[in-house]
Specification:
The chain is α+β, with helices and mostly antiparallel strands. The protein folds into 3 domains: 3-113, Rossmann fold, CATH 3.40.50.20; 122-139 and 208-320, ATP-grasp fold, B domain (D-amino Acid Aminotransferase, Chain A, domain 1, 2-Layer Sandwich); 143-205, ATP-grasp fold, A domain (Dna Ligase, domain 1, 2-Layer Sandwich), CATH 3.30.1490.20. The chain is built from 10 helices and 17 strands. The longest helix is centred in the C-terminal third of the chain and has 18 residues, at 258-275.
Length: 339
């Protein structure tokens, strides 16, 4: 428990852990949400799971599923209205990472963990994030954005990006809609695969080097960079199978030189603060020599047993229960709403 927040802890707070979402990451988010609930102390918080799906938003009140009124982010059970003191956002993809859930909570005057609606909207868009960071001295690969209705010339794309290159859904996570293209003849199929997840496609030049993922958290009021994880994919790249089905080696802390680690820590913290991220995030980089090249930031990183940020937190002795509790205290303490 954070002693600085004893004033907040005088009574049990009602917390909604929101999970699921409307994208391909729905099931992964359910696992993350379950981990959050598992690690939130029941003697401090009264926790309710709220599950978002394409069919609606429901609160799990004991064994009952009750619709959430999205205008007030509350629900009625047996004639009694239930409202939350704060929300822990564990939704990967839309609407939890693109700002939609945050806008709903802002309208309902309910504090929540993680980034604001505007920062979430920005960081969910890979291309806009890269464009936002480019003037701030963050190294990144050459990239180009395509829209669904664009006409593109494969030969021009290949000449500009080189081969191999990465084709990615611009707004998606967990490596859904990501294809590594080795031959020009495979480019159109890769673009169509990405378009299954989003109507915009990001094409990036391939960088060969040590790949790392690094968490940055706000903990006890300070921005803290966690030990990075080195990613060694057993397949062609760090895809869904590598992330969630064990098809990779993940080495925490990463095997980096002192200079590389210093440069990475500085870049990760700069990305976090420049974007205005809150709570926690995880950013991916690839080294070219001693320089880390930024790939993307995840504003709601995975929290499953296989996920990287929990590994990194354990490495420095931070329990997930302490991290999650501190995040809730922080959003309550900084809250400008009346709850």
């Amino acid at each position: 428990m954070n002693p600085k927040n004893n004033d907040i802890c005088t009574m049990k707070k009602r917390i909604a852990v929101v999970m699921g979402g409307t994208t391909s990451e729905h099931n992964i988010s359910l696992k993350s949400g379950a981990v959050v609930i598992q690690h939130l102390p029941s003697d401090i918080f009264d926790v309710t799971a709220v599950i978002i799906s394409k069919s609606g938003w429901v609160a799990k009140h004991n064994t009952h599923e009750t619709p959430i009124d999205t205008k007030t982010f509350s629900y009625i059970f047996e004639g009694k209205s239930h409202r939350f003191d704060a929300v822990f956002n564990a939704v990967h993809g839309a609407p939890g990472e693109n700002g939609e859930l945050q806008k709903t909570l802002e309208s309902a005057n309910i504090p929540y963990t993680g980034c604001t609606s505007e920062v979430s909207r920005l960081t969910y868009n890979k291309y806009e994030t890269l464009a936002f960071l480019a003037p701030h001295g963050i190294a990144m690969a050459r990239n180009q954005l395509l829209h669904k209705d664009d006409e593109w010339d494969i030969s021009e794309l290949v000449e500009k990006m080189g081969l191999p290159c990465f084709v990615k859904a611009n707004k998606a996570g967990s490596s859904y809609g990501v294809v590594k293209v080795h031959k020009a003849s495979d480019m159109e199929a890769a673009i169509n695969t990405a378009l299954l997840e989003d109507d915009q496609v990001l094409i990036e030049r391939f960088l060969s080097g040590t790949e790392v993922s690094i968490g940055v958290i706000e903990y006890h009021g300070e921005v803290m960079v966690l030990p990075p994880t080195e990613i060694i994919a057993n397949g062609d790249f760090f895809d869904y199978q590598a992330k969630y089905e064990g098809n990779s080696q993940e080495i925490t802390p990463a095997r980096l030189s002192e200079v590389q680690l210093k440069n990475l820590n500085a870049a990760a913290k700069k990305v976090f603060t420049t974007l205005g991220a809150k709570g926690f995030s995880r950013s991916d980089f690839i080294f070219q020599g001693d320089t880390p090249y930024f790939l993307e930031l995840n504003s709601i990183p995975g929290l499953t047993e296989e996920s990287l940020l929990p590994q990194q937190a354990r490495e420095v002795g931070i329990k997930l229960s302490d991290l999650f509790t501190d995040m809730i205290y922080s959003c309550l303490k900084n809250n400008t709403f009346d709850v």
